[in-house]
Design brief:
The protein is of the alpha/beta class and 506 residues long. 29% of the residues lie in helices and 21% in strands. Strands 6, 7, 13, 14, 15, 16, 17 and 18 form an 8-stranded mixed sheet that branches. The N and C termini lie far apart (60 Å). The model is unreliable at 494-506 (pLDDT under 50). It comes from Enhygromyxa salina.
Length: 506
């Protein structure tokens, strides 16, 4: 047998999470050879025929955070990102159990609406109290999470950093809405977005992280055209611009180990072996353990840590095309639909976005995210969502006007509102793309109510950076994790970008 061809990389990234793309782009920018093997849809979309549908529809409220700014400054994209990051400018609707709030995304509009709904309650006093604490916490977190001590591999988990942060942030039992009664509906509304904007079960989300989400939302909320898929495209362009490689068609047969180090990978169906100096796992490592990453090769403490992380809920994505005549005149922008009966960990929350702008050929596109329980079946979720949105008055009488109903998660084909299969989209529209989970730590609280899985694996040159690193910080946490992981491979400054690039930045 002829010897296998070996390609060698400074860094191989396995997975599709933003943290991995950030690390790959930075390491490539710093002059190293990088290979990304996604193991999933790296552009954040799935496709029916020639049409792409987003798998992540949440607004990108974290783009102005220091860790994100630091990454894009080095990549030469910050001016563009800042210019494209704008307030939604759309109506925001909250369908609570017994109340409906409709407001433009401004503080004044919001306060008028809550005064109309609860004229005799101290809502203005409570909201001002919460805003003050949100602003103070946000300012402190900007400083802490943008500091060099946090943005190095496992710096966040150092005893000194944890002690410093925990001594300055609000206590878990602090009541930022004190003037309101314990069962006031605004308490539910104030936390309604948490299951959408970050990746930790809300029951384990720290008080500071909760207040940070509140403040980021109150700043706009802000988003960018193209959403998460567009942001992924920018990072992928930067990877390839600096001679990094993205090979979506490769499948890994084995991660090769020798003397406590990862040496590279072998590929399914190929005789090539790809060697590496460093490897980064940018997905849930458990997706690889039963395949190329053998559990027996992992250190015992790491196996225990992974065994204690479980799913608190899952995001079910549903896409609709609807004739504009089927949309009520009061519906524009974004709807947050809170379940009529409280459920744990955000289960039952529904987030609907109506694509902005005029209808195309008289049809509007709607994206919906529904939070499901860890073991909740998906065979009838489409119908349950549409029934609830009709009963709650969000999409009343919409069924006859639906031109497309499809989810990438339930193994069902694309249909119209009458349940008829859409032949024009082809014969392979039944998909089983894994749902994104909200994580929780079994039997314990995450570090500061934010972090689950440190960068270190216990294997010298194998690192983790994914949604699981700082799930409670959402997109901001992924950028922080990506920066720290990149520093373990190639410190900033290797490509002429010294640390002084960031000195003096406010």
């Amino acid at each position: 047998m002829a010897s296998a061809t070996t390609n060698h990389y400074d860094l191989i990234v396995l997975g599709t999470d933003f943290a991995g793309l950030v690390a790959a782009a930075l390491v490539a920018r710093r002059g190293k050879r990088v290979l990304v093997i996604p193991h999933g849809p790296i552009d954040g979309r799935y496709r029916l025929a020639r049409r792409g549908f987003s798998l992540d529809t949440a607004p990108l409220v974290h783009l102005g955070c220091p860790a994100v700014q630091r990454v894009f400054e080095e990549l030469g994209l910050w001016t563009q990102i800042r210019r494209e990051h704008r307030p939604l400018g759309e109506l925001l609707h909250y369908a609570l159990a017994e109340h409906r709030l409709d407001a433009a995304p401004t503080d004044a509009s919001w306060l008028r609406e809550v005064h109309r709904e609860w004229p005799d309650d101290p809502v203005a006093e409570a909201w001002e109290h919460r805003q003050q604490w949100s602003e103070a916490t946000d300012e402190l977190l900007d400083e802490l999470l943008g500091s060099d001590s946090a943005l190095v591999p496992d710096g966040f988990w150092s005893r000194r950093f944890l002690a410093r942060v925990s001594s300055q942030l609000p206590a878990a039992d602090f009541d930022e809405l004190g003037p309101l009664g314990p069962d006031h509906p605004l308490r539910v509304q104030s936390r309604a977005l948490e299951a959408w904007l970050q990746h930790l079960g809300p029951g384990q989300l720290g008080k500071a992280a909760s207040l940070r989400i509140s403040r980021l939302w109150a700043r706009g909320p802000e988003d960018r055209s193209g959403g998460a898929p567009g942001l992924r495209e920018q990072l992928l362009q930067r990877i390839e611009l600096k001679s990094g490689e993205v090979k979506s068609n490769l499948r890994i047969a084995e991660v090769m180990h020798k003397r406590g180090r990862v040496k590279g990978i072998t590929l399914l169906g190929k005789r090539d072996r790809y060697g590496c100096d460093h490897m980064l796992i940018a997905t849930d490592p458990r997706r690889l353990i039963d395949g190329p990453l053998v559990a027996a090769s992992l250190p015992k403490p790491l196996q225990v840590s992974l065994d204690n992380i479980e799913s608190a809920a899952r995001r079910f994505v549903l896409h609709l095309d609807i004739d504009e005549r089927g949309i009520g005149p009061g519906l524009e922008g974004l709807v947050v639909c809170v379940p009529t009966r409280a459920q744990a960990e955000g289960v039952g929350m529904t987030y609907l976005r109506l694509d902005p702008g005029p209808a195309q050929d008289g049809v509007r596109s709607v994206s919906i995210v529904r939070m499901l329980g860890p073991d909740e079946p998906t065979d009838d979720v489409r119908e349950r969502i549409l029934d609830e949105l009709e009963q709650r008055g969000v999409l009343p009488f919409a069924r006859p006007w639906l031109r497309l109903i499809h989810s990438p998660h339930d193994g069902r084909e694309a249909t119209d509102g009458a349940g008829q299969r859409l032949e024009a989209l082809g014969a392979d529209t039944a998909l089983r793309v894994p749902m994104d989970p909200l994580y929780r730590l079994r039997g314990a609280e995450p570090s500061l109510g934010v972090g689950l899985l440190p960068h270190s694996s216990g294997i010298k040159n194998l690192y983790f950076a994914s949604r699981m690193t700082y799930p409670g910080l959402g997109l901001e946490g992924e950028f922080a994790a990506g920066w720290a992981a990149a520093g373990a491979v190639a410190a900033a400054g290797r490509a002429g970008l010294g640390r002084n690039l960031f000195l003096g930045r406010g």
